[in-house]
Amino acid sequence: MSGVLFTCAGQRVDIVTAFRRAGAWTLATDVNPLAPALYYADEHAFVPRVDDPGYVAALHDLVKVHDVGLIVPLTDLDHGVLARRRDELDALVLLPAPEVVDSLADKWLAHLLFEAHGIGSPPTWLPGALPDELAFPVLVKARHGFGSRGIYRCHDRRELEFFLGYADDDSMVQACCAGEEFSIDLICDLDGRCLEAVPRSMIESKGGETIKGESLGDEALRSAAVGVAEALGIKGPACVQCFRDGDDYLVTDVNARFGGGFPVHVAAGGGYPDIVLALARGERPAPRLGSYRPHVIMVRYLSQVILERGADDALRVAEDASGLRTPPAV
């Protein structure tokens, strides 16, 4: 098939290598030459910042030169511009409608979107509309935060007032959820029909990134996430984060991209990236809900890419003692 272009590649070596293993030709892009995932793709390219007027044109040039048929954004940073200007790219972009992208990027708007679609969401208020009677603890959350940045737990009114004043970004206040937190990695087709959803436990995370997780054969969690995705009109991958307390589900975030638990989904047989590549080929895969394996556990560890700067100032993967010139496709 034609190539797959990854935007904002960053550290997502797991995703780039999974697509290479599935037979895709890969092109990773980033503004930062020290982004490790660049060096695990078949080719890489440097592009302007996502807020640069030339960003979309730079991607389009790469699409044409490298016969790219699919664009996969790996962070939320460029979702808004890609969703609005997808028609200029001449390649399939795996994102929902711009208005859904905008709402999911703002935690307050996401809360309103969830409520509008009958999706359970924790009680949430803007700072100027807090009730007189407030059950503590509560969370102060940056509306546009990510990776657990800008979140402060407040145990009383004094702490709440302090952190609202301390926060640099526009914030909201949200009730703390009871019960256990889960993430569900899922994939929808271009009609918004959910094809697979893999719930996982959040054994451990750091900085908002899952570093230990286990796939769960939990039909109730799976069904809840499918309902959320199809109600919102998700197209492509998404990660639903929710708390379960008895029979109640409260959704805190939906990220319209591959989540941090991507390796769990792949290892459990959930269908990434084969489903995505089939969609790019114009196929209409059948739903395969529940076909993955439960009790598959991911534990992450630190690794590295060693680079050398050449006489032309370009960075290249260094030759190590075993003679390897490219990172192994792990």
Residue windows where pLDDT falls under 50 for at least 5 positions? 321-325
Strand content: 25-35%
Structural class: alpha+beta
- Using the alpha-carbon principal axes, give the shape: globular
Average residue-wise pLDDT: 94
Which strands sit side by side, in order, in the main sheet? 14-13-10-11-12-15
| CATH homologous group name of the largest domain | ATP-grasp fold, B domain
Radius of gyration, rounded? Answer: 20 Å
Helix content: 10-25%
CATH architecture of the largest domain: 2-Layer Sandwich
What is the H/E order?
A: EHEEHEHEHHEEEHEEEEHEEHHEEE
Terminus-to-terminus distance:
22 Å
Question: How many strand units?
Answer: 17
Number of domains: 3
- Total of DSSP H or I helical runs spanning 4+ residues: 9
CATH fold title of the largest domain = D-amino Acid Aminotransferase, Chain A, domain 1
CATH class of the largest domain: Alpha Beta
Could you describe the 3D structure shown?
- This protein is of the alpha+beta class.
- It folds into three domains: 3-93 and 311-316, 3-Layer(aba) Sandwich (Rossmann fold), CATH 3.40.50.20; 101-105 and 178-299, D-amino Acid Aminotransferase, Chain A, domain 1, CATH 3.30.470.20; 123-175, Dna Ligase, domain 1 (2-Layer Sandwich), CATH 3.30.1490.20.
- It has helices at 13-21, 55-66, 79-84, 98-105, 107-116, 157-166, 219-232, 262-267, 274-280; strands spanning 3-7, 26-30, 43-46, 68-73, 92-93, 124-125, 138-142, 151-154, 171-175, 180-188, 194-206, 209-215, 236-245, 248-255, 297-299, 307-309, 315-317.
- A six-stranded antiparallel beta sheet has the order 14-13-10-11-12-15. It has a five-stranded parallel beta sheet with strand order 3-2-1-4-5, with helices on both faces.
- Strand 1, helix 1 (13-21) and strand 2 form a beta-alpha-beta unit.
- Helix 4 (98-105) packs across helix 5.
- The relative contact order is 0.14.
